[in-house]
């Protein structure tokens, strides 16, 4: 594990004030495909695909070009450039587009889908269909989740480093805006609400897990990639959990290791004990679910707020901390324990401030304040339950995504 002192700072101490670290700026330098005329056409084609706002892609830039060249060989890029997101293509269709025998193209697609995990495949073996994936979320997570962080291949290490370099440009700010449909929700830490009378079944990790029979665990891609670039926080990585039908498929392909429900719950409770917060997709699905355990210093979802102060893109929490000034000694432990920099404490002036826009309602601040009990979790009156189905989530989400893509496309010209 990396020395935790190298981790990105979420909380800083400035004299007597304990609060969030300084916000970073968007630094991506937009270029044109013509600036890369020296590159093979297949790489420029794939870069243009992945830059699409429909895939939440970055603009054409040096970081994107470097990543595409690393992820794909020239013959792989030649196959990928024919794939779309919605309509799957057969190996025969891709072969016709490349003007190559299907016997040559099929192994390339197989390698990309089943070994590198950079494209999606579906359907029976005799009629497999292939689709492209976005970079993030998509290729980043799928290519790294099944890897051992201590024994990454040079290709995986290079990919992790280049994904980090691209993310650090802040290009994702293009897609962060208020009013977006929340696809993710964070669960309050079990100990913070275990006796709360207002806690719902959807708030409780163990109740959510009870809906599923199959569980698969993989390694956190965000902490792995942070470790590769020397910013690892030292927290456990083996806590990315997939449930239900999704888990069965990922276990079969070797991406995830099968675990029991009891083992899955223990893994998640350990993550909470190490100062991480667990999220779920914001839908009450009994077919498939996934759950990451996030730290504020490495997780790319949380870093959108911590690093770039982006509008919150996950569901508003059911519970938020309520402060009791009479009990508070302004020790600052709550601010130090918050993974989001949502609390600022001036130890000398004895002041406490809470930033609602940064809070995910995890309750780690409440646990940090257990001695004084100056904080308690309080339910939000207008809380909205998770979407009832994937269909209802998509009905709400797709129009917003298309609207955002249109705005990004127009801005880029």
Produce a short descriptive summary.
It is built from 16 helices and 15 strands.
Describe what this molecule looks like in 3D:
The model has no long low-confidence stretch (mean pLDDT 92). The protein has 413 residues and is α+β, with helices and mostly antiparallel strands. A four-stranded antiparallel sheet has the order 1-2-13-14. The protein has a domain at 40-173: Arc Repressor Mutant, subunit A. The chain has 16 helices and 15 strands. It has helices spanning 41-50, 62-71, 74-80, 91-98, 102-114, 135-144, 154-167, 190-193, 205-209, 221-228, 245-252, 261-273, 300-306, 333-337, 364-368, 390-412, and strands at 11-14, 17-20, 119-122, 129-132, 184-186, 215-218, 240-244, 257-259, 277-281, 288-291, 293-294, 319-323, 343-346, 351-354, 375-379.
| Low-pLDDT regions | none
> What percentage of amino acids are in beta strands?
5-15%
Number of DSSP strand runs: 15
Structural class: alpha+beta
Taken from the alpha-carbon principal axes, the silhouette is globular
Tally the helices: 16
């Amino acid at each position: 594990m990396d020395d935790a002192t190298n981790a990105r700072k979420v909380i800083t101490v400035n004299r007597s004030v304990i609060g969030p670290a300084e916000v970073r700026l968007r630094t991506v330098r937009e270029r044109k495909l013509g600036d890369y005329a020296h590159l093979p056409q297949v790489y420029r084609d794939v870069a243009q695909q992945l830059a699409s706002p429909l895939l939440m892609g970055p603009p054409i830039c040096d970081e994107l070009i470097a990543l595409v060249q690393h992820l794909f060989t020239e013959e792989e890029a030649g196959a990928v450039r024919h794939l779309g997101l919605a309509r799957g293509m057969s190996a025969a269709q891709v072969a016709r587009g490349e003007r190559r025998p299907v016997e040559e193209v099929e192994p390339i697609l197989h390698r990309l889908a089943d070994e590198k995990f950079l494209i999606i495949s579906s359907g029976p073996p005799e009629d497999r269909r292939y689709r492209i994936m976005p970079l993030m979320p998509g290729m980043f997570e799928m290519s790294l989740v099944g890897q051992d962080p201590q024994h990454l291949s040079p290709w995986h290490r290079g990919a992790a480093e280049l994904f980090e370099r691209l993310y650090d440009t802040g290009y994702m700010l293009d897609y962060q805006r208020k009013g977006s449909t929340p696809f993710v929700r964070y669960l309050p830490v079990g100990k913070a609400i275990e006796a709360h009378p207002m806690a719902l079944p959807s708030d409780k990790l163990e109740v959510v897990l009870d809906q599923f029979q199959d569980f698969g665990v993989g390694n956190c891609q965000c902490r792995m990639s942070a470790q590769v670039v020397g910013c690892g926080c030292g927290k456990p990585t083996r806590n990315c959990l997939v449930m239900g039908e999704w888990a069965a498929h990922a276990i079969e392909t070797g991406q995830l290791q099968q675990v029991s429900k009891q083992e899955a719950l223990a893994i998640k409770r350990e993550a909470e004990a190490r100062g991480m917060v667990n999220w779920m997709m914001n839908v009450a699905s009994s077919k498939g679910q996934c759950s990451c355990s996030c730290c504020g210093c490495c997780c790319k979802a949380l870093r959108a707020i911590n690093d770039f102060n982006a509008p919150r893109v996950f569901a508003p929490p059911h519970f938020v901390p309520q402060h009791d000034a009479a009990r508070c000694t302004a020790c600052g432990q709550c601010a130090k324990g918050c993974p989001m920099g949502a609390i600022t404490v001036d130890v000398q002036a004895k002041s406490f401030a809470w930033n609602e826009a940064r809070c995910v309602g995890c309750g780690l601040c409440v646990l940090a304040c257990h001695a004084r009990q100056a904080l308690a979790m309080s339910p939000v009156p207008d809380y909205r339950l998770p979407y009832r189905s994937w269909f209802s989530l998509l009905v709400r989400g797709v129009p917003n995504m298309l609207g955002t893509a249109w705005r990004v496309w127009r801005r880029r010209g």
